[in-house]
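[SOLVED] Need 3D model of a four-part complex

Original post:
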Amino acid sequence: MTNATMSIKDLLNRTDRFAANAGCQITEVDDRHAIAEMRVTAEHLNGGHVCQGGALFTLADLAIAALMNHDGHLTFGISNSIMFVSSAHEGDQLRAEAVLVADHQKIPAVEVRVTDHSGRLICHVTGLGYRKATNI
Amino acid sequence: MTNATMSIKDLLNRTDRFAANAGCQITEVDDRHAIAEMRVTAEHLNGGHVCQGGALFTLADLAIAALMNHDGHLTFGISNSIMFVSSAHEGDQLRAEAVLVADHQKIPAVEVRVTDHSGRLICHVTGLGYRKATNI
Amino acid sequence: MTNATMSIKDLLNRTDRFAANAGCQITEVDDRHAIAEMRVTAEHLNGGHVCQGGALFTLADLAIAALMNHDGHLTFGISNSIMFVSSAHEGDQLRAEAVLVADHQKIPAVEVRVTDHSGRLICHVTGLGYRKATNI
Amino acid sequence: MTNATMSIKDLLNRTDRFAANAGCQITEVDDRHAIAEMRVTAEHLNGGHVCQGGALFTLADLAIAALMNHDGHLTFGISNSIMFVSSAHEGDQLRAEAVLVADHQKIPAVEVRVTDHSGRLICHVTGLGYRKATNI
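Solution:
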């Protein structure tokens, strides 16, 4: 199986090593939204005994990468803003859902909500990408 | 040695499990700035073969946590904005330097530059914290 | 009529001088959302002959102020992030709708979409506020 | 005098109508930084009797426009993040200094500090632009 025939979901789950090491996995992706999931373990905690902001952002970033690269045009993240709303704790099953805010040809804009299993909002992320002329 | 007598540097390097697992370590901290460092390995790469944004943010967030909690008042990150300027590659030795933009009593503001060993800027992060009344 | 009996809509439309000078007016506000409107005139244009980013942000900020102060607790904006998606032109009738992302007791989070009369997204804004102990 | 021979400072001070109406003026610009100034009057205040966030952002945005368009390549602002650090009051003489964080060919990154006459930081702004192929 080559990259050309592998889905973006399988491709990124295999090749995004940092996200995989952090326990993040893409579970859904189409041209309008993408979902990535992560279970918070002791390995995700920070000095305050809650899920580290970098782990939350990694999960959101994986969902963004799946959504932005879904159509086969190589797209880089160029900026993100995050609002940390609630703490996530060990055992929480987190779900990041990325949706397109604007499907701009060169500079797509996305929004991500990271929620726990009860639907409580953990953090809210927005971001811009930059589409290169080349394909994946 | 208790937490009260351990430096914030040693405390966070020991207790921020996610940052430690990502290979990030605080190397300097005082009341004006904090530095955290990370060497990019194959384990930090994303599907585009460059350092994942979440790894870069984890490094920046560790430097922010060191700076914001240095005075012993428990401070949470509440928001961040990131501009990704250049890609970081396997083998790059990265350094995140966080400085205070505003030492507000309740809502401190910080800025972080992540650079590689040649001084090239990789990403620029700003952020706000919220100081709780309680001590660490 | 005192401030206590004036609605937040009437109060801000009267007292937010900069927003009023910019032609912005709150048209709806309740505890879940607020709407502010502005017609783009020649006075809103920038050097590129499109609506200046500051005019767009002023409109969004007025909607945020209405929403965040609706319950009578004085709330300051502490941070915002804006993604500029499409240009607005002279004659466009713009509408900013602010909704609560998180109704946190101290640090509420909001999201605003500024659209034109055809529903096209012009810009997307997020923000955090800080609620003071005092009332308006 | 045509646009080709007019400096970016004179050009934007004349053509950015919204910024001019808000009392903002570019006072310096070269390839590394740009300065815009504004005196806070009663016309800039919001419902909380301090300078409206939109007025502060308009000032910062003017400095960014001067810096990003200085070399004659038409550049649009695509995103901004703002941290509001201190309130500005009637009578304050404000100065926004924009500097390049990264002089990227397509996506330049800038940072702006808005300070009052005593040097106190009022707000901190970052932003990305997008350079079009066409010239001004």
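Edit: Chain C has a mean pLDDT of 93.
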